[in-house]
Design a protein that fits this description.
- It is a single chain.
- With 140 residues, the chain is of the alpha+beta class.
- The chain has one domain (2-15, 25-138).
- Helices cover 16% and strands 41% of the residues.
- The protein has helices at 2-15, 49-57; strands at 26-32, 37-43, 69-77, 80-88, 101-109, 117-125, 131-138.
- It has a 7-stranded antiparallel sheet, covered by helices on one side.
- Strand 1 (26-32) and strand 2 form a beta hairpin.
- The longest helix has 14 residues, at 2-15.
- The radius of gyration is 14 Å and the shape is globular.
- The N and C termini lie far apart (29 Å).
- Residues 4-21 have low confidence and may be disordered.
Length: 140
């Protein structure tokens, strides 16, 4: 369920665009408790790999995120070029996220209420079967 939720949330957040796509900085990733592997997708020409790893480290227990490995070919969707990636987090997600899976989307907002902030949207569960949706802000 979370894999489908991650893909649909990432698609909605990263691909919802006006008729002419503006440059965007954004990426999404998911982690599973007890598994070091992380899968994600990034907007090409958005955040640098260094910025992505730094922001991901905030949500990785121990803070050690491996190098990003780009997987597959970049694909164009609604004016954006998206690239899948994998990396590792040996500690898994932070203990404050009680569910088995957690998904994260980070995007630099250029207008509106969160203008000039790096918005983090987290989808996880409370460990009791209830889905949690959290909003936070990050620093690259």
């Amino acid at each position: 369920m979370f894999k489908k939720l991650f893909i649909s949330l990432t698609t909605a957040a990263l691909l919802a665009s006006p008729a002419v796509a503006e440059p965007v900085k954004g990426f999404g990733f998911s982690m599973k408790r007890g598994k070091p592997a992380i899968k994600g997708v990034l907007v090409v020409d958005g955040y640098s790999q260094q910025q992505i790893r730094k922001m991901m480290s905030v949500y990785c227990k121990g803070g050690d995120v491996g190098a990003l490995e780009l997987t597959g070919k970049p694909r164009k969707k609604r004016g954006y070029v998206l690239q899948k990636f994998t990396t590792t987090c040996q500690g898994g997600p932070l203990d404050r996220f009680k569910g088995k899976n957690s998904s994260y989307e980070i995007e630099y907002i250029t207008e509106g209420e969160y203008r000039n902030k790096h918005l983090v949207e987290i989808t996880t569960s409370d460990g009791l079967g209830n889905i949690l949706y959290l909003k936070e802000f990050a620093r690259p």
